[in-house]
Design goal:
The chain is of the alpha+beta class and about 90 residues long. It has one domain. Helix content is about 30%, strand content about 15%. The chain contains two helices and four strands; from the N terminus they run E-E-E-H-E-H. The strands form two sheets. A two-stranded parallel sheet has the order 1-4. Strands 2-3 form a two-stranded antiparallel ribbon. A hairpin with a 2-residue loop joins strand 2 and strand 3. It starts with about 25 loop residues before the first strand and ends with a helix. The model has no long low-confidence stretch (mean pLDDT about 80).
Length: about 90
């Protein structure tokens, strides 16, 4: 069982060792700062989303994705949905 696998924007990721055993994915984005990092909206940070998308495609991942985010109103949640479509699914 894979507990947590962290992607950092400074190295190529690969999920091949775990392949079909990945059944649940949580995503979030971050921005590097001098004293660490800060969580930001998907697409506003340092995560290389095309690379993440490709890593999941390489293993044929077709499961669900849970976005870790702050609460918000309907407009915020619609924006998050559009960001997931664009960043995670590759839809414009």
């Amino acid at each position: 069982m894979l507990g947590t696998y962290s992607y950092t924007a400074t190295r190529r990721i690969g999920f091949e060792p775990w392949g079909k055993s990945i059944v649940k994915v949580h995503v979030k984005d971050f921005k590097r700062k001098e004293d660490g990092y800060a969580w930001v909206n998907l697409g506003d940070g340092d995560v290389d989303w095309p690379e993440v998308r490709q890593a999941f495609a390489d293993i044929g991942y077709m499961g669900s994705v849970t976005v870790e985010l702050d609460g918000g109103d309907e407009a915020y949640l619609r924006d998050v949905s559009r960001r997931v479509d664009w960043l995670v699914l590759g839809r414009a």
